[in-house]
Design brief:
2 copies of one chain form a homodimer. Helix content of chain A is 72%, strand content 0%. Chain A folds into 2 domains: 50 residues, Homeodomain-like (Arc Repressor Mutant, subunit A, Orthogonal Bundle); 140 residues, Tetracycline Repressor, domain 2. The N terminus of chain A is likely disordered. By secondary structure, chain A is mainly α. Chains A, B: This is TetR/AcrR family transcriptional regulator. Chains A, B: InterPro entries: Homeodomain-like_sf (IPR009057), HTH-type_TetR-like_transc_reg (IPR050109), HTH_TetR (IPR001647), Tet_transcr_reg_TetR-rel_C_sf (IPR036271).
Chain lengths: 215, 215
Amino acid sequence: MRESAPTVAPSTDTQPRLNRRQAAKVRTRQKVLDAARGLFAERGYEPATIRDIAKGAGMSTGAVFANFQDKAELFEAVLTEDMAGLAEVMLNGAGDGSTRDRLVNALTAGYHGSIDQLPLFQAIVARSWFQPVAAETRQRAATQGLTDVISDILRAGIGKGEIKQDADVSLLTELTWDAYLSNYRRAAYDGWTVDQLADHIGRQVDTLLAGVSAK
Amino acid sequence: MRESAPTVAPSTDTQPRLNRRQAAKVRTRQKVLDAARGLFAERGYEPATIRDIAKGAGMSTGAVFANFQDKAELFEAVLTEDMAGLAEVMLNGAGDGSTRDRLVNALTAGYHGSIDQLPLFQAIVARSWFQPVAAETRQRAATQGLTDVISDILRAGIGKGEIKQDADVSLLTELTWDAYLSNYRRAAYDGWTVDQLADHIGRQVDTLLAGVSAK
């Protein structure tokens, strides 16, 4: 994911052409974001200082603050960009196959695409437990794309007749997402590899789907 | 829970009798713990300062540091005491009835017994995502009593023939515990009441048990 993120361009075709000064501003902003991403991914939130982020971007702390109000805003910008990238990784990873396989493949692709940024993920979840409501609302919006991948796979499963018509998609999505996130702690503290995470989420998905399988 | 915790006495009968100086030391330590609990429960971890904890206990910061090395150690001591108390609350709350009802009743009792300490719970989970491995190991030991309540209810359900013999108790316990914890965020950000939490964990337990019900 770290490789793909910088290629994420300003996102709409309707965006007006930038003049030279505006283009320079966008480039500077992206440089700060990339440096911040690298440091958050390596250290997490607290130990990543604005000073080191500025150093990593090859600019002054003043230049950083010209683009972002504070570290929290910088973190949110990285998070928003990365979660959008990760949702795409999951979606592409789902592939064809049974609902069970599509879910497990998507989530495994998610682990593959994020494991080298483990401290960033730990910081995202830790902060989600203690932040102002407005920040929480923005964070939920940023992770919505990821939970949508899960919901869409489940809904497609209902459409194909693999999952019971009356399955509670939103509840199943929530339980799957909680399990997915929780497993990162195994990677952080127990040294689990992506293969171990994949195996575990596979068994968790089996358990979650056992009661709603139409077979 | 806040009411019951101070009554938790040094725990074994084999403990030698304390002389007057030792007894005073135990009382001082407990006073600090109670003041810290109150402040953590009200504010969470970061905003609770040693200075305010000392003030709450009616002593100097030096006296606090004579008993606890730092705020982290103090937090861990509160957490260990409170999780033991909460495990008991859950166990007593389980009551008789079906495996489903016992699980939901135990977890609902857990919400009842902890909701007035919501910021403490938020701090516990937030810290669990970013702490030294040794601290994480101690925290897992402290919450083991809670997950044991869930496992024991599930195993009893297998014994009664309500849950399939081959159900994966450890996986189900983990999924139930993740759901239980995750719901605290609804209380923190969405203002959910204990009744709403109870209703939600009920639906989550139904989903988790649907695939392992022996009926």
